[in-house]
Specification:
heterotrimer; A mainly alpha; B alpha/beta; C mainly alpha; B: alpha/beta; five-stranded mixed β-sheet; four-stranded mixed β-sheet; 17 helices; 11 strands; C: mainly alpha
């Protein structure tokens, strides 16, 4: 309490500094509050109501929570989402790191820009258009993938039509879309690591692998954490790719939480239940992020 | 920053601020009725409202502005606008049982107009646009029921007579399908199938495509009052129908899950028969002009499937619109046989009024005879319940399960029926 | 220590350099191959946009179009939609979102990274938390709110939820955190105001991050579909992603037109990316020169 008072009425230099810090943060806070606070509050409020036919709202307490959280379809969607997560996130982060490291080594800026642009391009395309193109590529009979694989003797696969292959196939699309984003972040960070560290290590006779492990990765630690958290959040909320390609099929094998949320809100008109799912997503993501934050951050001395 | 860059960014900032401050569209002085539709595939149909609106403006002072909304996400956009009241359209195209049944966004149609509509619709369409017996909307799409398209050349090649289409599912239809399927000698997927089956995408669509089979066996998804699923969705007739359907893929192998999009399969001459609505031959003309096809009424079993659809589209008037009166005036203005004819003919789709169904235009369509035959069949059950999407999804999961070999028809249907009952009573 | 026998320094140096060159070459090759694989769907998209609808449907698969100069799809796209206007709209919205994000995010990042004030961590988590809320559940209340503010169907309405980037705050915080505290303290001792320190010490040190944020936020905003779709109704206000969707409908997808439109929508990004990349390089080179 006293700290807040001193924030508004600073007594000394340190207090003024404290206030400056708060003021730096204020525009962002004001923006989010102004734009999102009211809608968020309403959305949470909806989770305690049931929309009856005719549009009337009736208060349902925790009833909707009970209904949604005991619904096997909901947990099946959660399971699919987690499955997809486990496939996409590690691959994206590792590949992005590898690509960034590779790009960093390329001396010629012209080539580096070219390859970097190509990696980044998927991020620039409308997710829906990209998903539709991928659907075409995955087509079992006339898609390019089976066509190319037939040249090395692989029989045509069902990909998005197969119960077992659909999630890995979608994961590939997710990785494809997001790899450029993470590569950019890693690349920018790699370029700020002072060359002297590497020189010193090389003089000490460290191998490339050792340099990677003891200099690069620790220096990138903050970025790796950030990328992991962001990838987790974005892949948990995956929607566009799946909606455009499989619409949750076949047989619900690719229905993710947000797809179920969308259908519940806008096709089944059960807004209260959709809000319950939103709260679930928020709480889960917050919990995981906090855990990642707490346990994976390593302080680095400068 | 270099001075040049500073100038450029300064100018850009000013431009951006000016643009941000600009109102989005010019503020019109002309009074307008705003009509929302998501029929991206029918641009001429949509434009006709505006052209007619100019005529209408001479009498009433109101023009008509048509806004086409992308189909993907249209429910969210409609819901947001209808809840925000003053941002809502005056007229919008949607399913009556959803916007008037689940929500209360529709204005009741004036009695005189309702009577006119009721008198001029084909009998299977009379319930479309009504909720609990009260009419709210005007159906705009006829021919929104599946018919049988056959590939003439493939029939001939298999030694079948394309002018003599099969009429019984378990009889000549299945036999023909078998003749039209070319299996893979190595035991893999066939190179050509008889029937292009819909097996991918959302379960709602799969239910929609399976229903003719269910209706042909005399089964129905819900009770006549639409209040119960158990005993109907899992009735012995439904089990028989679903067994037949699943066997097409799993036992008789005249249909395959590996053939992707059924429309593409038919267009690529890899499937000989497809059940599709009347928009399909327009698509064929554009994408597969070399397919030689004919349209027939669907085969029957215990009864005939008849003309039925899960998603009937109607024009509705927003309850809280400040231009309600003018909106209904406009509806009256265009509700006559000639306008109905012009409107639909412009886009190449079937008119709605029965008096137009024997016009020269309709007679010249490839689906003329088949549509007549289908309309002569018994009217199938309808499921215009506010929760139809969710119910059809739950039901579709059973159908998909059978197709993909996840279980047997009876247990999957039992499960689906139980789920549907839970949805109905929630 | 590696098992290299004790050769003379210069020979060992030469051997290492050769090995380094090999490794470097292999790495470059791997990166290039990866880039080509990642690029392939675009190539496919571009090829498909030159085919007519029946060609696309053709079986067996045919990779090259019949007529490489078949631009009829592009013509039809431009005729059916005010596509150029949509490109302009997207550019405008994305630019404003990107610039605004950079400004607010770097300020916030500085505050979160280098200052302590009551509630700092809670606020930071609250900001990240915005990202964790599924947008679909907020869209209807947000729309009603925007309607109350009179921002429907305006540029301001389209860009409003996008003006500050949560990811941006995260990124700038990370980037600013690594600035040695000594630099900041030194500037303080020199008598700079906090805001002055922001401009003189912080901003120059995080140029790569700023450039990254600018580019990423631009692309992100460019790619937005759901909110722009919900908030706009007039055809002139459509952004590119919404215009793209008009080539799909409830029954089928017009692949020939969709791919042409998608190619058109990516070209400006490519151009901008090439231009901005140069700035990134410049920024990085300049920051490398700093002691």
């Amino acid at each position: 309490m006293r700290a807040w008072y001193r924030l508004v009425f600073p007594k000394n230099y340190l207090d003024r500094r404290m206030r400056a810090g708060f003021l730096f943060v204020l525009p962002a806070l004001l923006f989010f509050g102004f734009v999102y606070l009211l809608p968020l509050a309403q959305s949470v409020m909806y989770s305690f109501y049931k929309i009856a036919p005719g549009g009337a709202r009736e208060f349902a307490g925790l009833g909707r929570y009970q209904k949604v959280l005991t619904d096997p379809t909901f947990w099946s969607a959660v399971g699919n989402t987690v499955h997809l997560l486990l496939l996409s996130v590690p691959v994206t982060v590792v590949c992005a790191l590898a690509v960034a490291l590779g790009l960093n080594r390329i001396a010629s800026l012209k080539w580096r820009n070219l390859w970097a642009s190509m990696y980044f391009l998927p991020f620039a395309t409308s997710l829906v258009a990209a998903a539709l193109i991928w659907q075409w590529i995955y087509e079992p009979v006339y898609g390019f993938l089976n066509y190319a694989l037939s040249y090395i003797g692989v029989p045509p696969q069902k990909w998005l039509q197969s119960l077992t292959q659909v999630l890995p196939s979608i994961a590939v699309v997710s990785v494809w879309v997001r790899i450029g984003f993470d590569t950019m972040i890693f690349l920018a960070a790699l370029q700020t690591i002072p060359g002297e560290y590497y020189e010193a290590a090389r003089m000490d006779g460290a191998s490339a692998w050792q340099r990677l492990r003891y200099i690069t990765l620790p220096m990138l630690n903050a970025q790796i954490i950030m990328v992991c958290i962001l990838e987790l959040i974005f892949n948990f909320k995956v929607f566009d790719q799946v909606y455009a390609t499989t619409q949750g099929g076949p047989a619900g094998a690719s229905q993710t939480i947000i797809m179920l949320l969308y259908d519940t809100a806008f096709k089944y008109f059960r807004f209260g239940d959709a809000s319950v799912m939103a709260v679930f997503v928020f709480v889960t993501l917050m919990a995981i992020t906090l855990l990642q934050w707490r346990f994976l951050r390593k302080p680095v001395e400068y | 920053m270099k001075p040049g860059a500073r100038w450029v960014s300064g100018i850009l900032a000013v431009v951006a601020m000016v643009a941000m401050a600009m109102p989005g569209a010019a503020i019109a002085q002309q009074k307008k009725l705003v009509l929302w539709t998501h029929w991206d595939q029918n641009p001429e149909f949509n434009k006709w409202y505006e052209t007619k609106g100019k005529e209408f403006a001479k009498k009433s002072g109101y023009e008509v502005e048509v806004v086409t909304v992308p189909y993907q996400g249209y429910e969210a956009k409609y819901l947001a606008a209808l809840m925000a009241k003053n941002a809502a359209p005056d007229i919008f195209m949607g399913q009556t049982h959803q916007w008037c049944g689940q929500y209360d966004f529709c204005d009741k149609m004036p009695d005189d107009l309702a009577k006119t509509i009721d008198q001029n619709l084909p009998k299977y369409m009379v319930d479309i646009g009504k909720w609990k017996g009260v009419r709210y909307g005007i159906p705009i799409e006829h021919g929104n029921f599946q018919q049988m398209y056959i590939n003439v050349d493939m029939f001939k090649k298999a030694g079948l007579n394309p002018d003599d289409a099969p009429t019984k599912f378990t009889g000549d239809w299945l036999a023909d399908m078998k003749k039209l399927t070319i299996p893979d000698p190595k035991g893999g997927e066939p190179t050509q199938v008889g029937f292009a089956i819909r097996s991918k995408g959302a379960p709602v669509g799969i239910t929609d495509k399976f229903l003719p089979f269910a209706h042909a066996w005399g089964a129905r998804m819900l009770s006549p009052n639409l209040d119960k699923a158990t005993g109907y969705a899992n009735s012995p007739e439904m089990v028989a129908a679903l067994t037949f359907f699943g066997d097409l893929v799993n036992k008789d192998k005249v249909a395959s899950l590996a053939f992707g999009n059924p429309e593409d399969a038919f267009g690529q001459k890899r499937a000989a028969v497809i059940f599709r609505e009347s928009w399909f031959f327009g698509w064929l003309k554009k994408n597969a002009p070399d397919v030689n096809f004919k349209v027939y009424a669907l085969p029957c079993e215990k009864t005939c499937p008849g003309a039925g659809a899960l998603f009937p589209w109607t024009d509705l008037v927003y309850k809280n619109s400040s231009n309600k009166q003018a909106a209904w005036e406009f509806m009256r203005f265009i509700s006559n046989a000639k306008d109905d004819m012009d409107h639909h003919q412009l886009q190449g789709i079937l008119p709605v009024w029965t008096s137009n169904l024997d016009s020269d235009y309709v007679k010249s369509r490839p689906d003329y005879q088949s549509t007549k035959a289908m309309l002569a069949q018994q009217v199938p059950p309808t499921y215009f319940h506010p929760k139809s999407n969710e119910l059809a999804t739950a039901f579709g999961e059973a159908v998909v399960g059978v197709l993909f070999g996840k279980g047997q028809p009876k247990p999957l249907l039992d499960e689906a029926a139980a789920k549907m009952d839970r949805i109905l009573t929630d | 220590m590696s098992s290299i026998a004790p050769l003379s320094v210069s020979t060992r140096h030469a051997a290492l350099t050769l090995k380094q060159a090999h490794v470097r070459w292999l790495l470059a090759l791997a990166v290039a191959c990866g880039a080509i694989i990642v690029f392939f769907p675009f190539f496919w998209m571009a090829i498909t946009s030159l085919k007519t609808a029946p060609e696309i449907q053709r079986v067996p698969l045919q990779i090259t179009p019949d007529n490489w100069l078949n631009f009829s799809n592009y013509v039809e796209v431009l005729n059916r939609q005010h596509f150029l206007r949509s490109l302009l709209n997207s550019t405008l919205v994305a630019s404003v979102a990107a610039v605004s994000s950079v400004v607010v995010s770097s300020l916030a990042g500085f505050g979160f990274a280098k200052y302590r004030f009551p509630g700092r961590d809670v606020f930071f988590l609250a900001v990240i938390g915005i990202l964790m809320v599924p947008f679909q559940s907020v869209v209807v209340p947000l729309y009603v709110w925007m309607n109350d503010l009179g921002l429907l169907d305006t540029y301001a309405g389209i860009v409003a939820p996008d003006l500050v980037s949560v990811f941006g705050v995260f990124l700038m915080r990370q980037a600013i955190e690594v600035i040695p505290n000594d630099y900041i303290d030194a500037a303080r001792i020199d008598g700079g105001s906090e805001l002055g320190i922001f401009f003189s010490v912080v901003l120059p040190s995080v140029k790569p991050a700023i450039a990254t944020l600018l580019i990423i936020k631009f692309m992100w905003s460019w790619n937005e579909f759901f909110w722009p779709m919900v908030v706009t109704t007039s055809p002139e206000m459509k952004v590119v992603t919404v215009a793209l969707m008009s080539f799909t409908n409830m029954y089928y997808i017009e692949y020939n037109l969709l791919t042409a439109a998608a190619v058109l929508s990516v070209l400006p990004i490519l151009v901008i990316f090439v231009v901005l990349q140069r700035w990134v390089v410049q920024a990085v080179v300049m920051s490398g020169l700093k002691g």
